[in-house]
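Example record

One chain of 331 residues, shown exactly as stored in the release files.
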Amino acid sequence: MNERNEHEHSIRFITTDYEELFRIPDGGTVLVTFPDRQFAEKCSYIDDYHLKVGNSVYHICQYAEILKQNGGHCEPEPETELAKAAWQLGHREYLMLERTDAGFRYEILTKDFLSRTHGQLNRPEWTMNQAREYILNLAGLDRRSRFAVSYDMVKQKSRDVLKSSDVRNIEWVDSKYYPGMRTAEHTLTCEIRGEPFRLTYEVSKHDDGEGFVIHSDGKDIWDLMPEPELEKLEFTLSRAVTFGHWKKDIDQAETVEAVKDVRYGIWETENLNLTRDQIQELHEMIDRKEETLTAAMKKESVLKQLGETKPENGEKKAPKRQKKQKEGERT
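Predicted structure tokens for this chain:
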């Protein structure tokens, strides 16, 4: 007998009495329905009497008994006829899939409706189910249960979730340090989706590392923003604080030498924690401040040379009158 490739085998689904209900190809999906839920699962052929459903292996009769005991049944998953569809994957990620002229546009989101990955699949001849399975396999999510959900709902949720990119025009105001608590408290202003807000950003040092909290007035950003986005925002705020301190040093510099010291400080500091644009902006601020102070010094020097410097009371010195007339001159 010729050895057969296991992928050529179909998977049998039976009743508890061993009556065959239907077959699906290896790697196909079934639609499982219970009284309180419905989802699709990927199935794999093990042998003629065993199959893998999702991540679990069953005897074909055992699987039939589980369905019966829980008031459920299964059937080959029908093709999705919608042009837009979405699924929740094992109560975690979401997949959004949309048919286009070139094929399919897809996006995988986290459980917090944050974009994880997206792309275009140029297979216009494929069905929605084929495209979905290809994408899930590519992302390593093919063993997750597929719960059909509203595409528009997922799209709206992804728009509504507060992201770090929604926080703009961040400016540092001041900082307070509490050595005993090993905590730094920074105050910043910003705009969140166009509305002005005041942020409190605290960084605490612990024996096992650092921790942070971010709060806002009104609706607290700490409660509204998912943790991955809070981590991104924290990195942005730490840069805004660093930038604000350097800017303050430049503003408070009263001499050209003091401004140069700030520039040298920036050059000599390792791991500035600033973007390239922020560093460039600081150097441009230093250049402008240095030019202003240099121009003021030159003007003061010229005035001294002309003897026209103002006294302390701010009044100009009056020119001295001639006390003697030239000999022989009469009024």
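Notes: The chain has a mean pLDDT of 90.
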